[in-house]
Design a protein that fits this description.
Distance between the termini: 38 Å
Strand order of the largest sheet: 4-3-5
Radius of gyration: 14 Å
Largest sheet: 3 strands, antiparallel
Structural class: alpha+beta
Length: 92
């Protein structure tokens, strides 16, 4: 008998590839228009996903993929903090 459970797929804002939700990092815009990195994947807010690589973050910055997905202007300070947090995740 076949298992009918689906694997949730999301599209990366940088490379535009479809991957499973668990392989990606969620970036959210809260109700206060604050941009945060959601490592748990459960925080409230409008979400966009990027792969676990710095190259995808750079592509998302260049193509403004996160801004399109989150429907808000993303300041450069937020990109710098996302890059720093992504670096910490890669080291683990």
């Amino acid at each position: 008998m076949k298992n009918g459970s689906k694997i949730p797929m999301r599209q990366c804002a940088g490379c535009r590839e479809m991957k499973s939700k668990k392989e990606m990092i969620r970036v959210i815009r809260t109700a206060e228009n604050e941009i945060l990195l959601d490592t748990t994947g459960k925080k409230n807010g409008r979400g966009a996903y990027i792969c676990n690589s710095r190259s995808c973050l750079e592509k998302a910055m260049k193509s403004r993929g996160l801004e399109r997905s989150l429907k808000v202007m993303v300041p450069t300070e937020v990109y710098e903090s996302l890059e720093k947090e992504l670096k910490e995740i890669e080291q683990q």
